[in-house]
Specification:
The chain has 180 residues and is mainly alpha-helical. The protein is 47% helix and 3% strand. The protein has a two-stranded antiparallel ribbon.
Length: 180
Protein backbone atom coordinates (compact mmCIF):
# COMPACT_ATOMS: atom_id res chain seq x y z
CA UNK A 1 0.00 0.00 0.00
CA UNK A 2 1.42 3.39 -0.96
CA UNK A 3 0.62 7.00 -0.06
CA UNK A 4 -0.08 9.76 -2.53
CA UNK A 5 2.28 12.71 -2.29
CA UNK A 6 0.96 15.84 -0.66
CA UNK A 7 -0.78 14.11 2.24
CA UNK A 8 0.40 15.41 5.59
CA UNK A 9 -0.17 12.63 8.10
CA UNK A 10 1.18 14.62 11.06
CA UNK A 11 -0.44 18.02 10.46
CA UNK A 12 -2.56 17.60 13.60
CA UNK A 13 0.63 17.66 15.71
CA UNK A 14 2.50 20.32 13.73
CA UNK A 15 4.65 17.62 12.07
CA UNK A 16 6.23 16.84 15.42
CA UNK A 17 4.54 13.61 16.58
CA UNK A 18 7.10 13.07 19.35
CA UNK A 19 6.28 16.29 21.16
CA UNK A 20 2.75 17.41 20.36
CA UNK A 21 0.61 14.32 20.09
CA UNK A 22 -3.09 13.71 19.84
CA UNK A 23 -3.71 10.07 19.00
CA UNK A 24 -7.38 10.55 19.88
CA UNK A 25 -7.80 13.04 17.04
CA UNK A 26 -9.98 15.22 19.29
CA UNK A 27 -7.66 18.24 19.45
CA UNK A 28 -7.85 20.25 16.20
CA UNK A 29 -4.62 21.12 14.38
CA UNK A 30 -5.06 24.87 14.93
CA UNK A 31 -5.40 24.28 18.68
CA UNK A 32 -2.26 22.10 18.77
CA UNK A 33 -0.45 24.87 16.88
CA UNK A 34 -1.72 27.51 19.32
CA UNK A 35 -0.62 25.42 22.32
CA UNK A 36 2.85 25.06 20.80
CA UNK A 37 3.15 28.79 20.01
CA UNK A 38 1.82 30.08 23.34
CA UNK A 39 3.26 27.48 25.72
CA UNK A 40 6.15 29.64 26.93
CA UNK A 41 3.82 32.50 27.82
CA UNK A 42 1.40 30.29 29.76
CA UNK A 43 4.28 28.64 31.61
CA UNK A 44 5.61 32.11 32.40
CA UNK A 45 2.64 32.96 34.58
CA UNK A 46 3.69 30.24 37.01
CA UNK A 47 1.47 27.95 39.00
CA UNK A 48 0.91 24.23 38.67
CA UNK A 49 0.76 22.45 35.34
CA UNK A 50 -3.03 22.39 35.48
CA UNK A 51 -3.25 26.18 35.80
CA UNK A 52 -0.97 26.49 32.76
CA UNK A 53 -3.13 24.06 30.77
CA UNK A 54 -6.32 25.96 31.56
CA UNK A 55 -4.67 29.33 30.76
CA UNK A 56 -3.59 27.95 27.37
CA UNK A 57 -7.05 26.67 26.49
CA UNK A 58 -8.88 29.69 27.89
CA UNK A 59 -6.62 32.16 26.07
CA UNK A 60 -6.95 30.15 22.86
CA UNK A 61 -10.73 30.01 23.21
CA UNK A 62 -10.92 33.77 23.88
CA UNK A 63 -8.52 34.68 21.06
CA UNK A 64 -10.01 32.47 18.36
CA UNK A 65 -6.92 30.25 18.67
CA UNK A 66 -4.66 33.17 17.85
CA UNK A 67 -6.74 34.53 14.98
CA UNK A 68 -9.25 36.78 16.78
CA UNK A 69 -9.64 40.57 16.76
CA UNK A 70 -7.73 41.15 20.03
CA UNK A 71 -4.58 39.25 18.98
CA UNK A 72 -2.86 42.28 17.38
CA UNK A 73 -3.16 43.92 20.82
CA UNK A 74 -1.65 40.81 22.49
CA UNK A 75 -4.91 40.51 24.42
CA UNK A 76 -5.27 36.73 24.28
CA UNK A 77 -7.81 36.58 27.12
CA UNK A 78 -10.19 39.28 25.85
CA UNK A 79 -9.49 41.28 28.99
CA UNK A 80 -11.02 44.71 29.56
CA UNK A 81 -9.19 47.72 30.98
CA UNK A 82 -5.80 49.30 30.40
CA UNK A 83 -2.73 47.66 28.92
CA UNK A 84 0.97 48.48 29.08
CA UNK A 85 1.47 49.76 25.50
CA UNK A 86 0.51 53.24 24.34
CA UNK A 87 -2.27 54.21 23.65
CA UNK A 88 -2.98 51.58 26.36
CA UNK A 89 -6.56 50.83 25.30
CA UNK A 90 -9.31 51.34 22.73
CA UNK A 91 -13.09 50.88 22.63
CA UNK A 92 -14.31 47.41 21.73
CA UNK A 93 -15.74 47.03 18.24
CA UNK A 94 -19.08 45.54 19.34
CA UNK A 95 -19.58 47.49 22.56
CA UNK A 96 -18.06 50.99 22.51
CA UNK A 97 -18.48 51.20 26.31
CA UNK A 98 -16.05 48.30 26.81
CA UNK A 99 -12.40 49.31 26.94
CA UNK A 100 -9.93 46.78 25.52
CA UNK A 101 -6.29 46.90 26.66
CA UNK A 102 -3.28 46.93 24.38
CA UNK A 103 -0.30 44.88 25.58
CA UNK A 104 3.30 45.18 24.42
CA UNK A 105 3.71 41.41 24.01
CA UNK A 106 1.92 38.11 24.55
CA UNK A 107 3.89 37.75 27.81
CA UNK A 108 2.48 41.08 29.05
CA UNK A 109 -1.08 39.91 28.29
CA UNK A 110 -0.54 36.59 30.09
CA UNK A 111 1.08 38.42 33.03
CA UNK A 112 -1.95 40.70 33.34
CA UNK A 113 -4.18 37.62 33.46
CA UNK A 114 -1.99 36.27 36.27
CA UNK A 115 -2.15 39.64 38.08
CA UNK A 116 -5.94 39.48 37.95
CA UNK A 117 -5.91 35.94 39.33
CA UNK A 118 -3.76 37.14 42.23
CA UNK A 119 -5.93 40.22 42.91
CA UNK A 120 -9.07 38.07 42.99
CA UNK A 121 -7.28 35.55 45.24
CA UNK A 122 -7.81 32.72 42.75
CA UNK A 123 -5.58 29.72 43.21
CA UNK A 124 -5.69 26.25 41.71
CA UNK A 125 -7.14 23.31 43.67
CA UNK A 126 -8.80 21.43 40.81
CA UNK A 127 -9.88 22.16 37.25
CA UNK A 128 -13.57 22.80 37.96
CA UNK A 129 -12.92 25.01 40.99
CA UNK A 130 -10.24 27.03 39.17
CA UNK A 131 -12.27 27.53 36.00
CA UNK A 132 -15.38 28.41 38.02
CA UNK A 133 -13.47 30.98 40.10
CA UNK A 134 -11.90 32.50 36.98
CA UNK A 135 -15.25 32.69 35.19
CA UNK A 136 -17.31 34.10 38.05
CA UNK A 137 -14.75 36.29 39.85
CA UNK A 138 -13.18 37.75 36.68
CA UNK A 139 -16.53 38.01 34.82
CA UNK A 140 -15.82 35.87 31.77
CA UNK A 141 -18.62 34.78 29.45
CA UNK A 142 -21.12 37.45 30.41
CA UNK A 143 -23.76 37.75 27.67
CA UNK A 144 -25.59 40.93 26.75
CA UNK A 145 -28.36 40.23 29.24
CA UNK A 146 -29.29 41.43 32.69
CA UNK A 147 -31.16 38.21 33.45
CA UNK A 148 -29.16 36.30 36.12
CA UNK A 149 -30.43 32.95 34.81
CA UNK A 150 -29.20 33.73 31.27
CA UNK A 151 -25.82 34.89 32.61
CA UNK A 152 -25.40 31.80 34.81
CA UNK A 153 -26.32 29.48 31.93
CA UNK A 154 -23.76 31.17 29.63
CA UNK A 155 -21.05 31.00 32.29
CA UNK A 156 -21.71 27.32 33.02
CA UNK A 157 -21.51 26.54 29.30
CA UNK A 158 -18.24 28.48 29.07
CA UNK A 159 -16.74 26.50 31.97
CA UNK A 160 -17.85 23.20 30.44
CA UNK A 161 -16.51 24.15 26.99
CA UNK A 162 -13.09 25.08 28.38
CA UNK A 163 -12.80 21.95 30.53
CA UNK A 164 -13.95 19.75 27.63
CA UNK A 165 -11.20 21.20 25.44
CA UNK A 166 -8.62 20.69 28.23
CA UNK A 167 -9.59 17.01 28.21
CA UNK A 168 -9.63 16.70 24.42
CA UNK A 169 -6.21 18.32 24.12
CA UNK A 170 -4.63 16.69 27.18
CA UNK A 171 -1.76 15.11 25.28
CA UNK A 172 -0.83 18.27 23.40
CA UNK A 173 -1.04 20.22 26.68
CA UNK A 174 1.25 17.66 28.33
CA UNK A 175 3.74 18.37 25.54
CA UNK A 176 3.87 21.94 26.87
CA UNK A 177 3.75 21.43 30.60
CA UNK A 178 6.00 18.39 30.73
CA UNK A 179 8.53 20.05 28.40
CA UNK A 180 8.75 17.13 26.02
Amino acid sequence: MGFYSGIDFYQFVENNPGTYTDPSGLCPANVVSYIKDMCKYAKGIGGPDCETKIALIQSGFESGWGAGPFVPDNNYFGLHGRGDKSPYSHPAKKNKNAIMPIFSSPAAGFNEYKNRLDKADISYRNDLQFMSDVTFKLSFAVPDSKDPAVILKAQKKYINDILKMVGECALALDGCTKGR
